[in-house]
Amino acid sequence: MQNKTKEAAAIICRSKLSLALTGAGISVESGIPDFRSTDGLWARYDPMEYGTISAFRRNPQKVWDMVAEMSALMNNARPNTAHVGLARLQQLGLLHTIITQNVDNLHQAGGATRVIEFHGNSSSLICLWCGERYRSQSLSGKMPPKCDCGRILKPEVVFFGEPIPSAALAESSRLAAACEALLVVGTSAEVSPANTIPAMAKSAGAKIIEINLNPTVLTESLTDLFLPGKATEMVSQLVEAVEEAIPPSRDGHLHP
Known about the structure:
By secondary structure, this protein is an alpha/beta fold. It has helices spanning 2-14, 47-50, 53-58, 60-76, 81-91, 106-109, 166-176, 196-203, 217-221, 231-245; strands at residues 18-22, 97-100, 115-117, 120-126, 133-135, 154-157, 181-185, 207-212, 225-228. It is built from 10 helices and 9 strands.
């Protein structure tokens, strides 16, 4: 495993453009269960009854029963060493952008500066009727939160039946087609269209480094290096290997 981690570090250090694709698995250790896990939200709330845009338009008050629980989980969560580790790779100039399917804002809280939020961000709210936007914190304690126009606000996340934000989709595709290394962390890559990113990167000649607890559909088909284990442990080991591979400059700092 140590040799594989060093090999992954070497790939990242050589790459002129590296990306990370992250999913629910990177935030599990921050206390946010995967929605699809046995203790996730979809085990208690039928996604077709609570997770679609049509359900929200039909009965936003009901959908907020689920959203309130999701919001409480995310408000209490803090970035873990995997989030911080990816931010460190950005600081070193070795990770261009993080493309995340998560809506928990933990990458930014962990220090990341370039994040594409494929499914939106739960920290902002929008009124579907007048278009007004709010920060969730500014309306804390009000359940369900309402717009000044009187309508119930929707978290600015992608519900089933809604399109991926066009700018996020276009930028992710552009970067995937240009990258030389893709680090996949905590995602099974089964949800469309985010699951097309590894294939696009591979077609462009990128090396795929996968960190997951268990093998996924990617492992046998696209992955070049599979590092099995918890995101916190494996990302930390990878960052350590990267830092060891970068010689210090005369000012005592690490420079790629």
